[in-house]
Amino acid sequence: MRIAVTDPIMSAFADDLRRTERPHEWVFADPGVSGSARAAIDGADVVICSRLTTDDMAGADHVRLVHATGAGVDRIDAEAVPDGVPMCNTGHHGPAIAEHVIMTALMLRRRALEADAEMRRGEWRTIATVPGSPPAGVPYHRSLAGSTLGLIGYGEIGRSVAHLAKAFGMRVVALRRHPDAGGPGTELLDRVYGEEQLHPMLRESDVVVVTAPLTDSTRGMIDADALAQLHADALIVNVARGALIDEDALYAALAEGRIGGAAIDVWWDAPQGAEAPPAVQRFAALDRVVLTPHHSGHASEVFTARAADIARNIDLLDAGLPLERQVR
C-alpha cells in the first residue's frame, strides 16, 4: 500500500511507523513545500495526518483510511474524508498531560515563577524574612492535599489527571455528559456532576482542569458567569482547546485578581510559525499565569505509542480486519 504522512511531528517517528507486518510504500510530505501534502496524498491508500483539507484530498481516489495522529479530529475537514472511508484516531497523551496539569498547579500554588524571579534578582523572600500579609509579606503555600480538583470532561486525559490528583491526596469531582455512566476511573471520583451543573461544580473546586473536546456545545462554556463561580484562590488549567474558555472573561478575572491563577497550554489563535499568537503577549503581562505552547502532551513516549497504534491499524486494514479507535 502507498501511505502518505503529512504530519511533520509524526514523520519524525518514521521508523516506528514502518514497523508493520509487511513493507509498504511510504511518502512523507515536506511542510516547507507548498502543495507537498496534496502531492503525497495523490494515489495513497492511507493518509496519516493532524489536519486535512478538501484541497489536500483532490487526488485521493484510492484512500481507504484516514488516520489522525492524535485524539482530536477537529482539524480534519469532515468533507475532505470521502464517504465510506473510515477515520481513526489515537491517544496515549493522558499521562503526559496529567503530569503537566499537576506541575502547573504546583507551580501556581507554590509561587514558583515569583520565587524564581526573586532569587534571580538576588532577593531571599520567605515567610521568615518578609513576614506579614500579602502584598507586603510573603504568603504561605497551600498544599494540593485536601483540595478539590474539578474536571470538565472525563476521557483519557481526565482519568489520567484523576489518578495523579488522588496520589497527591486531592478530592476529585467531574462534570460529565452522562453522569451516571460507569467505566474506567469512575472509582476515582468523589462526586459527578451533569452538564447542567457546571456552576455548582466550579464553586466546589479549588483547581479546575478543562479537558473536554471542543464542540458547538462546549465552545465558550467557561464564560464570565462561570468564572464568577470560582473562589478567589481557585486555579484554572486548560489543556483542551482555547475556545472552551472566553478569552476576555479569563483575562479580566486574572487581571482583576478575582481568581488565584491560570495555566494556559492551548490558545485561541494559531501561531505563525515559531511566532506566538497575540493572546500570549496579552497574558504574559499578568502575574500568576503559567504559559506553555500547547506542548503538555509532547513526551516522546506519547508519539512512539501513537506510531505503534497507527502501524497496527495499517496491518488490520491490510488484513481486512476491523480497525481500532475508529471515530467515523
Describe the structure.
It is elongated, with a radius of gyration of 22 Å. About 30% of the residues lie in helices and about 15% in strands. With about 325 residues, the protein is an alpha/beta fold. It has 11 helices and 12 strands. Helix 4 (about 95-110) packs across helix 6 (about 155-165). The longest helix has 20 residues, at about 300-320. The strands form 2 sheets. A 7-stranded parallel beta sheet has the order 8-7-6-9-10-11-12, sandwiched between helices. Strands 2-1-3-4-5 form a 5-stranded parallel beta sheet. The protein folds into 2 domains: about 1-90 and about 300-320, Rossmann fold; about 95-290, NAD(P)-binding Rossmann-like Domain (Rossmann fold), CATH 3.40.50.
Distance between the terminal alpha carbons, to the nearest Å?
21 Å
How many domain regions? 2
Radius of gyration: 22 Å
Strand content: 5-15%
DSSP summary: helix tally = 11
At the first level of CATH, what is the class of the largest domain?
A: Alpha Beta
| Named CATH topology of the largest domain | Rossmann fold
User: How would you classify the helix and strand content by structural class?
Assistant: alpha/beta
Largest sheet properties:
7 strands, parallel
Query: How many strands?
Result: 12
SSE order in H/E notation? EHHEHEEEHHEHEEHEHEHEHEH
Poorly predicted runs are none
**Biggest sheet: strands side by side, in what order?**
8-7-6-9-10-11-12
Oligomer: single chain
Gross morphology: elongated
Question: Helix amount, in percent?
Answer: 25-40%
Q: Return the CATH architecture of the largest domain.
A: 3-Layer(aba) Sandwich
